[in-house]
Design a protein that fits this description.
Helix content is 78%, strand content 1%. The chain contains 14 helices and 2 strands, in the order αααααααααααββααα. Helix 3 packs antiparallel against helix 4, helix 11 (246-270) packs antiparallel against helix 12 and helix 12 (281-302) packs antiparallel against helix 13 (307-327).
Length: 350
């Protein structure tokens, strides 16, 4: 029994579970899947049963680890127990979601219903990943666990991304000066800070906000329990407006608004060869190409650069922002890409 109680064994069990869950969710989100066909239904049911069994095994190991911690760490068991209670609850929720999908897959083959299953499982998976990190279960005996997030193709999110970036630049160029733009950004920043604080401390407000028709269509599963990308973008954009010249901010914002969706759409749908973890060669090349074109266009119109200096500046912005997007595993790329693209452009303009 002692082997079950040791952290490396628990880490191995959870690592195998998260890897298999991630692959299963990718299969469910595949738009080419044969929804509703007998073979597909049987495959989903079998996968749910296997994953539920692995979840139950990991749940038992987590409970045993928690009990061991209570015995060994009496002085600090309160914090450890809370983390393992949350981890156990995540495993219970995941098992319940898998049972529901296994039961309902026989009676419904509509894509809308299947999307509900995908969303339910993805939320349970992201909750498990979050609580594994909180419980510091990120390493096995031989390696560090890979805990990838679920990022399904979401056309509504991509359209919203492009629309907001382009409209923000158009509003500044056609309607606002710097002072009025900062007034608007300060108001938006105050609103998102209040909303994020409310979400963090009042679960009811969080549930209400993430189920609003607009946000429900564009929010990702991992954003259910953490700061969402729109808030990160708003706060980063406010900071960049204060620190960098506006032409550089426009470069950064349009690179993010146009290159990131291009990389997402092409990479997730057609990118088979991986360059770094879940990021594909095709997605990164798409980001680089769009970022280069956007940088050239904005810098040509809004900066004194020309000729070889214009080309050099655009190349630097494109390469730096593409590299940032490639390696932004834990960081929100709405923060990292916007900050780096704006910063590099500012170095050439100032």
């Amino acid at each position: 029994m002692e082997g079950v109680l040791e952290l490396p064994q628990l880490s191995e069990a959870l690592g195998a579970l998260t890897r298999d869950m991630h692959q299963f969710l990718l299969r469910l989100h595949d738009r080419k899947a044969a929804w509703g066909e007998a073979a597909w239904v049987e495959s989903v049911r079998n996968s749910c049963r296997e994953l539920e069994a692995k979840t139950a095994s990991a749940r038992a190991a987590a409970t045993a680890r928690w009990e061991l911690l209570e015995q060994r760490l009496a002085s600090t068991r309160r914090g450890a127990s809370a983390r393992y209670e949350a981890l156990s609850e995540s495993l219970d929720n995941l098992a319940a979601s898998l049972r529901i999908v296994a039961a309902e897959v026989v009676t419904s083959s509509r894509r809308a219903r299947c999307k509900e299953w995908c969303d339910r499982l993805a939320i349970s998976y992201e909750d498990l990943v979050r609580n594994m990190r909180r419980a510091r279960i990120v390493k096995t005996a031989t390696a560090r666990l890979s805990l990838p997030h679920i990022k399904p193709v979401n056309y509504a999110r991509n359209i919203f991304h492009v629309f907001m970036g382009v409209m923000a630049v158009a509003a500044y160029e056609l309607l606002l000066d710097w002072k009025s733009a900062m007034f608007v950004m300060a108001g938006l920043s105050a609103f998102v800070i209040a909303a994020e604080v409310s979400r963090a401390f009042v679960p009811g407000i969080n549930r209400m906000l993430v189920t609003l028709p607009v946000f429900k269509q564009i929010i990702r599963p991992r954003e259910m329990g953490r700061i969402n990308s729109a808030s990160s973008l708003t706060l980063t954009l406010t900071a960049m407006c204060l620190l960098a010249p506006m032409p550089a901010v426009e470069v950064g914002l349009l690179v993010l608004a146009l290159a990131d969706p291009a990389a997402s759409l092409l990479g997730m749908r057609y990118g088979r060869r991986k360059l770094w973890k879940s990021k594909s060669v095709l997605g990164t090349l798409a980001f680089l190409a769009v970022a280069l074109l956007v940088s050239l266009g904005v810098l040509a119109l809004r900066s004194p650069l020309s000729g070889v200096w214009l080309a050099a500046a655009a190349c630097c912005v494109a390469v730096a922002s593409a590299a940032t997007e490639l390696f932004s595993d834990r960081l929100d790329d709405n923060f990292s890409v916007l900050a780096i693209a704006t910063g590099v452009a500012a170095l050439w303009i100032v």
